[in-house]
Amino acid sequence: MQSTAPLHTDANILVVDDSPVNVKLLLALLEHYGYRNCQGINDPRWVEPMLEEQLPDLILLDINMPHLSGHDILAWLKTRWGEQAPPVIVLTAQTSRDTRMQALDLGARDFLTKPFDQQEVMQRIRNALQVHFLLKERNDRAILLQNLVEERTAAIARLSLEDPVTALPNRRALLAQLEGRLREKAPAALYFIALEGVDDIARLHGYATSEALSLHLRDRLLEHFASQATVGVWNTNKWLMITQQPLARGELSNQARAILHCIAQPFSIDQVQVRLDARIGISHTAMPHQSADHLLRLAALALPDTAAEWRLYQSSIEDTLQKRIRLHEALRVALDNQEFFLVYQPKIELPSGRVVGAEALLRWVHPTLGFVSPADFIPMAEDSGEILRIGEWVIEHAIRQLEEWLIARQVSPDFRLAVNVSVQQLTRPDFARNLLNRLLRSRLPAGALEVEVTESGLMENVELAREQLRLLARHSVPVAIDDFGTGHSSLAYLKTLPVSVLKIDRAFVSNMDTEPQDRRLAETVIDMARNFGCITVAEGVEKPEQAEMLRGMGCELAQGYWYSPPLKVEQFIEFCAARQLEMA
Ligand code: C2E
Ligand code: CA
Ligand code: CA
Fold first, then answer.
1. Looking at 313, 347, 364, which one is the last position of a domain?
2. Nearest CA to ligand 1 atom 32
3. Which residue range forms the structural domain that includes residue 265?
4. Which of 88, 257, 432, 558 could form a disulfide with 468 if both were Cys (CB 3.0 to 4.6 A apart)?
C-alpha cells in the first residue's frame, strides 16, 4: 500500500535504544527514505539534556533500557513538556498488554514491534509526523491569533481613553484620573474650558483646518502646562485641564488667566490666521462634592457667560440655575393655567396729543413666584420654543380686545394696536399666512393690528423674515422695527425691507436732552425714516423736554411713562376717555 501522507523529510527524529544495532538499523532506514535530520542515542540519560537544547519532532523510544526505562522517559516528557512534548513511538519486543497500556497512559502515540517491518515502520512514522505537524501548525496559528487579539484589545483600550483627533485623554480617561486623585485624597483643580468659534472655523475653513487647530491648541497647551497639568478633551469645543496645584483663589485665577492668554494668541494654519476665544469654569476638590463626575459638573456650571473670562464655582450659581429651571417649568404650564394677561401702553400722536394706538405688552403673574418680568421670561420662552404658543395667544387676545374696543367705540376707528412678535414666530414659513387668515376672520379694518419686530431679531435671519414681511405688507399689515438703533444694522439696508414704522430705542431717547450725539442720532433716524416713507415712534419718553424735542424733530408718535405706563384694560379705557375729554 503506497502512502499519500506528506513525508516531512526535514523533521527532527530522535532514536533512543540501548541496542546500537537497532539504532543503526533505524537511522539507515530513515536515511533511505530521505529523512535528513535524524539522531540516535544508546544511553537514555542523554535524552534530557538533548531535549533541553532542542525538541525533536518525533522520538522513537525503546522501553527496556538500563538506567532509565522508556516509561521513565515518557513520564518525564509529560511532566517537563506537557502539551509541547514531541510524539513518541514506542519500540518494543514485548507485546504485553500491561506494558502497552502503561505506555499509552504516559502519552505514547504508537507502537512498533521488533523485529521491524520496514513498510510498517515508515507508515507509522509518517502518520505520527503528519499528526504532529498538523497540530503544530494549528497551535502556531492559535498563538498568532491570540497575539493579534491581544494587540487589538490593547489598541482598543488605548483608543477608548483617547480623543481620536488629538490623542489627548478623553472624557473616560479624565474621569478615571480624577477618580484616582479623589481616592488618594490628593488636591486637584478642574478647569473646564469652553472654546468659542470652533464651529465657525469648521464651517468657514473646513474640518481639516478645525482639526489642525485642535492639534495646534494641544501642542500649545502641552508646551505651557504639561509639567503641571493633565490636558484632555471633553468634546470638540470643551477641553479640560486638571492640575494638582494648591487651591488658593490667587493660584486658581493665575492659572485661569494663563490658560486664557495661551488660547487667545492667534493660530496660523496653512497661511490662515484663526483666533479662538475661551471661557473657563473652575471647581476643585476642596469644594463639597459627591464624585468626580459631580466635580466636573460644578466646573461646567461655573462657566461664565462672557468670553475671555473665568469663574470659580459657587453654590449661588447652582441656586440661580435651579431658579431658572423652576421658572422654566412654571413657564411651560403658565398658558394652560391662564396666568398671562396683556397690558396696554398708549401711543400718543405728538403734535395733537391724541391717543392713536397702543402697544400690547405681556404680563405673567405666577401664583407663588409672583410677577415675572417679560425681560426674564420672554428670552426663556424663545429658547424653549414656548414663545410660539405664547405668541399665538398674544395675537389672538389682542385681536379680540381690539374688536371689543372698536365695537364699544372706546377707541377711535383709526386706532392701531401693536403686538410684539419674536423672531422665532416671524421666521415660521406660515406666520404671515396664519396671521392674515386670522385677520380676515376678524372684523378689524385693514392696518388696525401692527406687528413689532426687534431690529436684532430681524437681522438674525433677514431672508426668511423678508418673505414674511412682504406678504404682510402686501395685505397692508403695518410692521414696526422695534428697538431701532441697537441692532447695528444700516438704515440703507433696512430700506430694502417692507416696514412702515421705526421705533427709536429708549436708550437714545432717555439721553437726548443731555447727549448731543444721541440727539443727532434721533434726528437722523427721523429724517431718514421720513425719506423712506416710514413714521417714527419714540420709545421711553419720560420727560416733557424729550417730548418737546422729538416733536420739533418731526417725530410722529411717542410712548413712555411721561404719558402713561402700560395699563390694564379698564385703566387703559379710562386713560383714553380722560384724554378724549381733555382734547374736547
Ligand atoms: P419692548 O417691546 O421694547 O417694550 C417696551 C418696554 O419698555 C416695556 O417693558 C415697557 O413697559 C417699557 N417702557 C415703556 N415706557 C417706558 C419708559 O418711559 N421708561 C422705561 N424705562 N421703560 C418704559 P416690558 O413690558 O417689561 O417688556 C420688555 C420687553 O419684553 C419688550 O420690550 C419686548 O421685547 C418683550 N415683550 C413684552 N411683551 C411681549 C410679547 O407679547 N411678545 C414678545 N415676543 N415680546 C414681548
Ligand atoms: Ca415693542
Ligand atoms: Ca422697544
1. 313
2. 375
3. 171-313
4. 432
